[in-house]
Amino acid sequence: MAVLPIRVFGDPVLKEFCPEVAVGSSELATLVTDLVDSLPRPGGAGLSANQIGMIKRVFVYEDEGEIKVCINPRIISLSGDTEVEEEGCLSIPGIALPVPRHVSLELEFATTEGEVKRLELEGWMARVFQHEIDHLDGKLILDRTDRASRAEALNELQGGLFLPPAPGSGRDNVL
Length: 175
Fold this sequence. Notes:
Blueprint: H1 26-38, E1 46-48, E2 58-63, E3 66-78, E4 82-88, E5 96-102, E6 104-110, E7 116-122, H2 123-136, H3 141-144, H4 147-158
Antiparallel strand pairs: 1-2, 2-3, 3-6, 4-5, 6-7
């Protein structure tokens, strides 16, 4: 329906916990369409509802070229193993931070048709889902990185560097 602006660091909506939504409502259908339309392609691996100003427990993600929807996700289990990798975020443009994430996870969520699905994910997709669920819980990569990296990023952000990544800058797959 509409390409909505992505909220950036400093917007209080990004720190809000997103409650579950009723599946099947016309409001949800509009939200899903707005999320799909607003996900930058190429460049975005996922987009959560609060990133476009809606406090709802919904996100979209790109999976092998197809945009899919995750409604009311709930993590069932996380692996004990973690890996630290650089992550970017559409809501913190131009910043990449080392973020530890569980290597794999199992979760449950609803589809737009109301079907409850259970997925086991590992690697990149496990990272994407953890990143987007963090958004729904009001957390940013700044909350997950180490203290020194957070301080450096905040210093950069306070210096007015809210510039979107330049095309071809190598930051094409931000979460």
